[in-house]
Amino acid sequence: MADLKERLLPLRPSPVVNVREQSFRPSASGRSLFQGTDFLGLKKRGQSIRSWIRVDTSGNSQIIEVDKFTMMRRCDLPARDLRLLDPLFVYPSTILGREKAIVVNLEQIRCIINADEVLLLNSLDSYVLQYVVELQRRLTQAGDGEAWQSDGPNSQQSRDVFENTSPDYLPFEFRALEVALESACAFLDTQAAELEIEAYPLLDELTSKISTLNLERVRRLKSRLVALTRRVQKVRDEIEQLMDDDGDMAEMYLTEKKRRMDLFYGDQSFIGYSSTGSGLSVSAPNSPVSTPDGRKLEKSLSVGRSRQDSMKSSDSTTENIEELEMLLEAYFVVIDSTLNKLTSLKEYIEDTEDFINIQLDNVRNQLIQFELLLSTATFVVAIFGVVAGVFGMNFSISLFNEPEAFKWVLIITGICGVIIFCSFLWFFKYRRLMPL
Predict the structure, then answer these.
(1) Residue 52 is inside which H or E element, if any?
(2) Predicted model pTM
(3) In the chain, how many domains are there?
């Protein structure tokens, strides 16, 4: 009985003051209670680690697994920009220019473009694989075309001359952006072409035979057309918005900004080295940097120099946005052509709907005309019923004694009915109620 009572009663909770001691108290095996538990590992396993395809400037690709916070620090992006690349959510097409990266979300292509690499979400989609292969091919061809410029003692000068004089030269980020735009425009144009191939025969069949099945197929086709038009319109508006804003286009020159930043930090390190001297200590009493006034002066000079360099870079980049503007304009023409194609298809569908409505109205008018004629004929025939009803009355008339009287009554009634029917037809023709 005592044993049963102990099993039924709840266990007494341990005192709060002993919880900390019990957590670090060694067990019977001599180990601590939480010894060997990797809390950092548990935290890392809770983060969203995703697979990315990395393509560098040489065209080399590799698959890396990076969590969200590491990617934010690596590309200097906020969380809302990475949320645009989440495949679990459906976001409209977007191209965002940031300080160190370009966030691209164009149909199946969702990537982050840096000055020296492209980070693409790893996917089994054929368009993603085609994007990687096409980008590698273009980077490899560009590397082979510029390889001859790197030979000789004046390799850097010849490379700069080639980059400034070649009309086909584009920085790495613009090449990656161009492949993304080309892939998105080709994907949308392919879908528009497939929709056209399916739409025109179906609409022609509907005009020849109006049925419930054909109407349902046209309804589904129009729903797909509206959805595709909305997607194409969003890509077109995004490109047009970038072309209208010079500041956004200037923000996308990542290679130029990185080069100026490297030059700025190189100048700062050179100034710091020359200010300390080759054999003097920084803390020497004769050094102006060691004094507080000297440090303030150097800090103010560095801030002023950085502001001046940033203003110069922004001004020069704003002046040299023609290459990006030409790139966007080329694909704006392509996507606008696709939109015009979808608009023409939509107008053809609307014309077909108007034609079907006209046909239905014509059939409805014919039915009304037939109903009108039938009502008139019924009215004329009803006259014979009235005459038969009159002669069927139970009262005596001298006309009933004539043997030919009923025959003449029928003849006169028929002639009157024909005259009334013709009068109705003339009235309908006079009022243009039906073509006669």
Answers:
(1) strand 49-56
(2) 0.66
(3) 3
